[in-house]
Amino acid sequence: MPGQSRSASPHDRPQEEKGAMDGFVPWPPEFEARYTAEGYWSDRLLGGVLRGEPDRVALVAGDERITYAELDRRADRVAAGLRSLGVARGDRVVVQLPNTASFVVVFLALVRIGAAPVLALPAHRESEIGYLCELSEAKAYVIPEMGDGGFDYRALARAVRVEHVVVDGDAQEFTALADLDVDPAPVPAADGPDPADVGVFLLSGGTTGLPKLIPRTHRDYVYNLEASAELCGFSDATVYLVVLPAAHNFALACPGILGVFATGGTVVLAPSGAPDEAFPLIEREKVTVCAMVPPIALLWLDAVSWSDEDLSSLELLQVGGAKFAAERAAQVPEALGCAVQQVFGMAEGLLNYTRLDDPPELVERTQGRPLSPADEVRVVDEDGNDVEPGEVGELLTRGPYTLRGYYRAPEHNARSFTPDGFYRTGDLVRRLPSGHLVVEGRAKDQINRGGDKISAEELENHLLAHPSVHDAAVVGMPDPVMGERTCAFLVVREGAAAPSLRETKDFLRDRGVAAYKFPDRVEIVAEFPRTPVGKIAKKALAARLG
Ligand code: OOB
């Protein structure tokens, strides 16, 4: 029914699911035994990831250069401060910080306590943050004072219900992060996290009315980042530039910031991937590797012809999050003087990488093959049967770093996983004899806008709340730079004025929706084409977009 929210609210959760880390779906014991025996899982914790030489620079953020010893010390001090606020093992803390040293320090402090950071994106607003705080029953919410375009995160914090708000900067009535930098007291080891505990919550791109939380345990995420670092050849000579939000799985742990720390290299934080910000940093810091989404890679391929910066230190460009065209991938080595690697990953777990020694054909034309020998991959038809080798089907996966269930979402889990625990990715792929996967499309109701994921249903629910809107259907439209952009088809109520694109965006902004979810285009239609069973025929709608 139009106008009706199609997902359960967290208030509907059964009582027995509330509490510490209830709502986390563990791997079955036989898998736990296997992943441990075969060495995929260890006792190493996310808080112990700083393995560089003490005097080596671990992090460059603006004018700050922070050594491993100093970062370690700061993480312990902030952990002590957070403990004094009452943050303890098993708690959840929503973290919404941009690419600053504070993000790294707060992340490390929380995982050392054993309190799981819930990693929100800087772009999220009241709609997303309010829901995340509620669903996770967050103990605290950590924010900067201000963001892009003068956005005041403290005002956002006032609108959400959470016990403690911690502000990096002028805290006003809240707690200043600077005040949490205190002398650490010794903590009994028994109070620390267990490798099987949830270490961090990542956000799902989402296909439903409300975003989902992805629990990542210490041991599965440590494996994720260490195996990735090895595959990508990271070492203490690696200088990694962060241009994606640090809160995104790709930039955080594939191998990302944490993979660099585990191998003793240096992380350089950039505010964005804009060439005029990133290129000078590459020259100054002699950056060797950078991970990005295709639109940033396209910008770089373009900008390099007119920029004067010396980019010769670059060795590897990792591109993923959305499909990178083979023609573009082929241009990278000559244009940027470095190798390219395609990464097809998901916050839910499974990571596919082209290998550094793969022939150009595979590097350019595929999205890589699974990271782990223990990753199980199936390609199935609509009835769940395996397709013939080389045919297109939906990718299902199970493995030592792929979730077994979203957090506190039993109904959704029943649909997103097979009875034997395979995660239904919603991605349509073709598997080559080498095991490499080619992404051919999508079976999920999501728009991939240059790597940003937008749940059609979530956006439709917001649009349905508009007083003039009778029905709404959101579809992706092909775009040469972003891969896809977002079009909202609206059926307007009788006698009501049709909202313009501008009015639609203003309405969504007022509802506290993150701007990357705003439609790029609004089309008013008299009615929707329907499938024989009465569902909106989105393919037919998309075909109307000239
Ligand atoms: C990454 O993670 P998410 O969680 O933002 O999005 C996952 C989805 C995938 O299911 C797929 O639909 C799409 O993003 N995707 C790609 C892709 N990489 C991701 N589609 C085509 N080609 C690719 N190379 O996006 C992510 C997480 C870790 C590493 C890299 C990307």
Q: What do these coordinates show?
A:
This protein has 16 helices and 25 strands. The chain is of the alpha/beta class. Among the domains are: 45-52 and 69-194, Rossmann fold, CATH 3.40.50; 446-543, 2-Layer Sandwich (GMP Synthetase, Chain A, domain 3), CATH 3.30.300. Helix 2 packs across helix 3. The structure holds 5'-O-[(R)-(benzoyloxy)(hydroxy)phosphoryl]adenosine (OOB).
Q: What ligands can be seen in this structure?
A: 5'-O-[(R)-(benzoyloxy)(hydroxy)phosphoryl]adenosine
Number of helices: 16
Strand tally, please?
25
Uncertain runs: 1-20
Outline = globular
The strands making up the biggest β-sheet line up spatially as: 2-1-11-10-12-13-14-15-16
